[in-house]
Amino acid sequence: IEDMRRELALVERELAPPTDDGLRIAGVCDPGLRRAHNEDALSFATGTTNGERWSVLVVCDGVSSSSHAERASSLASKTVCDALAHFARSGDVAVEPGAMAVAQAIRAAHVAVCAQPIEELGGDPPGTTIVVGLVWRQRLTVGWVGDSRAYWVSESGAELLTEDHSWANEA
């Protein structure tokens, strides 16, 4: 966590100044030590609806044992971010449950990834994990599939908000 805080601090210095309400969103993505290319994808959106700020944050991690994992994570990340930003901009965020919108956006990403005409390369079909945060009225709605995790990080430490969808947890 401390390493990520240092990396984010470096990114924050390179960003444009914060908005009038002090909001800044930054992300760091690293391919790791095993892959020559990055199979992760990040998407963010912010805006104001009915005079109140909203944010969408999406992180996807391509499943490296699948084919075209980087395309799957990129498409899923963009699909969910676009769907939730539309939900927030439309004003529905003020009257409909965020959890339902997050679940529908994740389903839309699944459909989008499965619909891609990607040739088979002998592996599993394209796959990605996903974790999504929708912030509205100082409330965070989180959705996820797989073993990508969401943490609440504050001055007092970090708290895990999600539970991995994995064989190890099932057992």
Architecture overview:
The chain has 4 helices and 6 strands; from the N terminus they run αββααββββα. It is α+β, with helices and mostly antiparallel strands. Strands 1-2-3-4 form a 4-stranded antiparallel β-sheet, covered by helices on one side. Strands 5-6 form a two-stranded antiparallel ribbon. A hairpin with a 2-residue loop joins β5 and β6 (157-160). α2 (69-89) runs antiparallel to α3 (98-115). The relative contact order is 0.14. The mean pLDDT is 83.
Through-space gap between termini: 28 Å
Mean pLDDT reading = 83
Could you spell the SSE succession in H and E letters? HEEHHEEEEH
Rough outline = globular
Estimated structural class: alpha+beta
The fraction of residues assigned to DSSP E strands is 25-35%
The beta-strand count equals 6
Question: pLDDT below 50 for ≥5 consecutive residues: which ranges?
Answer: none
Helix content estimate: 25-40%
